[in-house]
Amino acid sequence: MSVEYRKNRKKWGYRFYLRGQCFSRYVWDTKTEAKRAEQEAQVEARKNPALQPTALATASGAYLIASAERGRSKWRIDGLNYTFKAHIIPHFGETTPITDINPGMVKNFITTLKKRGLKNKTVKNIIADLRALYNWAMESKEDGGPELTDKNPVTKKVAKLIGNTKVVKPAINPRLFDIAASVIENKRDRAWFDVTRFTGMRKDEANRFQWSDINWRAGEVRIPGTKTDEAEAWLPIAPTALKTLRDLYESPDRDPNSPYVFPGRSAQMKGKKIYSRRRMFERIQQVTAVKKYLRQHPELSYQQALEATRKEKFKGGIHLAPKDLRDFFCTEIAAKSDDAKVAMGLMRHTSLETTTKYMRTVKDRMRKAVQDLGCDSGCDSMAATGHEMLQLAKLGIAPEAAKRLINAGLFKGKFGGGEWSRTTDAADMSRVL
CATH class for domain 174-326? Predict the structure, then answer.
């Protein structure tokens, strides 16, 4: 039946296919209204001629089919499909021939995306998908292509309008991950959090992790890859994570009929693989926000603090995502090993450059690395901490202390604005290592 009720929208509507094109709309309160609208839509659809092969909607659909035939992964096909439906087709129009789209229209598209608040990195990915569509459309029929157009409007000059897309990840505090784990009340959710951050699994890999993937004697786990075949591997596991898994396996409330280590617990998903961990991370942010607020306002009750932080959308809490657990793992193992290839192997990457993108700086380690610099030249007797310099300033003898430091050769050159005072190494500290 083409007329149906959508529970998520609480509206009646229709969905039917004509000449390979899907027509759907859900905006009516009654089934009768939706049925009448569906009949009118079918009549109108039959009046309009079929879309030409060069129409954006037709070309993008053919491109998705060709991509699947060429062996692209399902997650990549789904990503392309979402980009076309959510961004590209709504902007240019499904009937617009791809031969009519010019660089000026692409520039306007980029401006529109940025006005909607999308990050430069996201805009770059959308434009890359549009460029890929045209690269396929330009392929000659001799090479198995459609040969729909002879030009690509996504030029290098146009792409420059996107701006800087390099994302510098902020420094992480490893202790925040311990605090986040401590507020997880459910034993299985806590185990999922710990195992994920101590193995570097992706969210879906941890969700479909099975008991058969554990080699208890060797202390290894088989991590089922999600993106590529190379991502599947047997890897050593931290004793802490192995102990967590052992405790979970011996727990009396373990579901003996489920092969999954972290199956669903609800009536509908009991024993099955679950896909989302959103509620757990929202709970972490909520609880940590309330506890922080109570430390600042001890006179309030928990309920009062909850209401206060809810109005601020729990901004003071620890905000994490599954991806942060993988970043935590990469950062920790990189700090414990002198061989970068060890981190690359444990992360199951084929490129060391990819591994470095997961590494995050830790401010305490940066501070510790530079705190003793220069002490080989005898600075221990001369250097003053920030607190000591503050006390000297209060006593009015900071200028005298500065002169002593200059005479000792610790400060050289001019002081004040307008001079370059950072070395190249110091500037590099602002980048993600």
Answer: mainly alpha
Residue 144 has pLDDT above 50, yes or no: yes
Q: Which amino acid is at 342?
A: V
- The string of pLDDT tens digits covering residues 187-205 is 999 999 999 999 999 999 9
What is the C-alpha to C-alpha distance for residues 114 and 352, in angstroms, rounded to an integer?
31
Any idea which residue has 């890359």 for tokens? 128
CB of 199 closer than 8 Å to CB of 262:
no
* Mean pLDDT for the stretch of residues 84-113: 93
Q: 56-162, which class in CATH?
A: mainly alpha
DSSP string, 236-287: E--HHHHHHHHHHHT-TT--TT--BSS-B-STTTBTS-----HHHHHHHHHH
Integer CA distances (angstroms), 140 to 137, 148, 271, in order: 8, 9, 51
Is there a contact between 226 and 205 (Cβ–Cβ < 8 Å)?
A: yes
> How far apart are the C-alpha atoms of 337 and 355, rounded to whole Å?
14
pLDDT in tens, 367-422: 777 777 766 555 544 444 555 545 545 455 555 555 555 565 544 444 444 443 33
Would you tell me how many other CB atoms lie within 10 Å of the CB of residue 261?
23
Tell me, what's the pLDDT at 247?
93
Q: What is the 3-state secondary structure (H, E, C) of 351-384?
A: CHHHHHCCCCCCHHHHHHHHCCCCHHHCHHHCCC
Residues in the chain: 433
Rounded CA-CA distance 169/84 in Å is 28
The residues, any chain, with a CB within 8 Å of residue 154's CB and separated by 6 or more, are 103, 106, 127, 130, 131, 134
